[in-house]
Amino acid sequence: xxxxxxxxxxxxxxxxxxxxxxxxxxxxxxxxxxxxxxxxxxxxxxxxxxxxxxxxxxxxxxxxxxxxxxxxxxxxxxxxxxxxxxxxxxxxxxxxxxxxxxxxxxxxxxxxxxxxxxxxxxxxxxxxxxxxxxxxxxxxxxxxxxxxxxxxxxxxxxxxxxxxxxxxxxxxxxxxxxxxxxxxxxxxxxxxxxxxxxxxxxxxxxx
Length: 207
What we know:
Elements: E1 2-3, E2 9-12, E3 17-19, E4 22-24, H1 30-37, E5 45-51, E6 55-62, E7 70-76, E8 78-85, E9 96-102, E10 108-111, E11 115-121, E12 126-132, E13 141-143, E14 162-163, H2 165-168, H3 173-178, H4 185-199
């Protein structure tokens, strides 16, 4: 797994094993994930979305705690997957990084609690599946307008983004910050550090 420029986010590019039958890959490895990120991924919910070319979903995030960490891959077609740092006080607050996920390279992205997530379908029938550390709870789910000029995310050129009414009505980054909707960097770091401590092996006491 390769750390992205935003703390708390990684990209994973699996080894692909192909023969005359097709391709096999391990798109998630718990031990390797824990070794690279310092924590385990608790699976509370698994989601799948299918989108036509141009559809833009996000930027979504959840209150921390408990937040919602996500491990994302594209099993059909291709998407531009984007991680956004929405944590107030973070050195990279407001920054974003994009990773192309497709059914050829089979890459995956992991984003920790407190980070924003969005993607745009680059093909028809783009199918994204993601593992979530917490279940969906409407009262603690929020969004930032993915077309907010303050974020300045580069989406698919020459294609009119197809955005849901809910995402289109979401506040911009500055408005969400002023309203106190965004998670804080320190709270997110403390929360993920606590998760890492839970995963740390118990040490034997010296008699």
